[in-house]
Fold each of these.
Amino acid sequence: MSLQSSQRRAYRTRNKVKAVSDRPRLSVHRSDQHIYAQVIDDAKGVTIAAASSLTITDSGTKTDTAKLVGQAIAKAAMDKGVKAVVFDRGSAKYHGRVKALADAAREGGLDF
């Protein structure tokens, strides 16, 4: 059974991130219409905080929505006591909406 190239990229990125970090992982998934972010503790296998564009009601471009999701995930993580994370972009390039979410999360106080 062969994996699709996007799955291979996601596994490759995730394995590098998990191998070097004892910090929680900020995982981002980008679909055509929405963007999702989770702060995951891989040692315990639990999701600490989550945010997505499904909960954002403001209209605007998808990049603007990604910025709002980045701010929301930063706030949710800070409320749970998480200040430092490692960024997992999955199979997506660090560009566009993914970069906008990451920059907004940094501005919200997360360190990565």
Amino acid sequence: MIGAESHIITMAAEITLVLLTLAVFFTFIRLVIGPDPADRIVALDLVSILIVSYLAALSIYTGQKSFLDVAIAYALIAFLGTVALARFRERLAAQNRDENNREEE
């Protein structure tokens, strides 16, 4: 019975890895197409989440727990990167609003 459960887990991990790879591919298309910088930031964040998920599934598939450590570290760095990009985008939007208000006066 243990062999059958192991086979099912391996098969589920393989399917998960394939689906996550497809999701990353489609998200990269959204990242390139855009059209808005905010859409690109969200797509980049989604790619980060998908990579963390991929690393977790890879850890289950290979049985190596070190991939989970990498996933945790990557998630922390990706979160900080997303926050930094969002703050940068907000500052640019605020500068554009200030410039538009000056032109109207």
Amino acid sequence: MARARSKAAYMISAVAEKYSIHPQTLRLYEREGLLEPSRSDGNTRLYTDQDLERLELILNLTRDLGVNLAGVEIILNMREKMAAMQRQIEEFIQTLGQELTTRVKAVEPESRNSLIPVAIHREPEPAKPARKRTVR
């Protein structure tokens, strides 16, 4: 079950304190295009839960795995492309399923039985006798 998302937004100072990083680091991530926090009417950066998840990934890559910011950018871009491809595959599978359903319904009822695969029963092969070993 997907976890419910709150509509809360966090200011840069709260995020920096929560993740033990300097606010300038968050600004750097924004300049590098790694994070895109929204802005309030007063131009204050506001970080959503989705931004915080992305920040956690960035921090995991940089702190735990030693990836530099250029590598982080490549990884994030690849993740986005993979997610887009996954969505396309899911859409294709859904369309394919709908098309198959439509075609099966179009087939006359008496010929539908011919569409059901029949299992083929094969007799197991007899076991080969064990070879005798000679001891010298």
Amino acid sequence: MPVTRVRPVRALPQPPPRADTVRQVLFQSFYLKCLAHASYVVGDEGTGVAAVVDPQRDVGQYIEYAAEHGLRIQHVFLTHLHADFIAGHLELRNRTGATIYLGRAATAEYAFTPLSTDDVVEFGSVRLKALETPGHTPEGISILVYDLAVSDTTPYGVLTGDTLFIGDVGRPDLRVALGWKAADLGALLYDSLHDKLLPLPDATLVYPAHGAGSLCGKAISQERVSTMGEQRLVNYALQPMSKAKFVELVTTDQPDAPAYFTYDAVMNTKERPTLDEALARELQPLTLEQLLEAQKMGAQVLDTRDPEQFAAAHLAGSINIGLGGEYATWAGTVLRRDTAIVVVAEPGAERESAMRLGRIGFDQVAGVLDGGLASADARPDLIRSTERLSPELAAERLASSAPPVVIDVRTPPEREKNHIAGSLHIPLNRLQERLIEIPAGRPVLVHCAGGYRSSIAASLLQRAGVPNVGEIAGGITAWEAAGLPL
């Protein structure tokens, strides 16, 4: 559909009605908790046309929603080239024929329609209007959503991508590895917020691409929608300040970004296999002997069961990243993306294990262990376990004449709140590069906040050959609940 120009938005005092309750316009958000990722479908029942904004790579839910409401997905927008996940724009293009839209500063191998400020895509009562909002990334855009049956000048809401979050703004340092300076992008972000978003009416609803837990910001709220008026009041980064002060604020104290972020940002510019194509190749059942041969050749053995199951029994040399936690983020942090992965999963969870790796572009799964760990019942020599000590028993051992080394794998801000006296602090994302700091000749006890990250850490230590590794069950939360000193 051709892109045309429209007049700039005028700020009118009356609040727009919610689009999902008005006339024929449909607005639906989708939230992927494990990646703290929000995506959106905007549809027009009159024309039967829909657009998807910032889709995740497994796109079935959008196609199902469209079918349920008699819609055809004809447009797919990326507010920017995402770093923390592989977007589903190619999957939607291939399955529905949708046109892809990116900001005009983007470059990509696939065909797309570039959008500049004030460019619009319109169907029925829906108008989607682009605003160039670089800063988190150089090609970033935000998208104003209008219900034309209500107003063609006052937007219902704005899809802000990673430019503006609820309670935060996008970090400007994720393109440093690609040649951009964080300070330069921070200055662009200031201009985007002040020139493009802050002038919007107070009642404009704000729908970002991420929520709390995302590493694309440092203080993102648990709330998933707000208004421009509320954000002016409560968002620390939108308070009156100079550009220099803003740049200083948004370039300091950002959490470490996993190495896969740069890889994913680049992959989102590529013409690549779709997720279905990747899974068709990856979900090959392996015998135990085939898995061991792959491991001997350097493959990473990924056990996706819960930490409690892994602690009870697991294959020697396997890495535990349970599906019950921030699986994709930690997989992208501790696994090598240039090395094959073989999966050990609870029977029935093999596809989910591979699919969620595919969400971050880890398409190098070489197969899954047929039958899960039960396939190794006849080989007890291959099985290892991890002792999980209650806080009370851990405290007794720490008070003994030969105490273990306690390793705290939480983040620095968590550590600053409280910690076990004498513990060694090595954040999980730094553990593999700091193994040399662990004293030799003493048992090791690992802990995190609740037990998920400590299981990952214990498996990495065992894989690296560290002897006598255990965990404090329940982490610092259980330690504190037991009344033990911090």
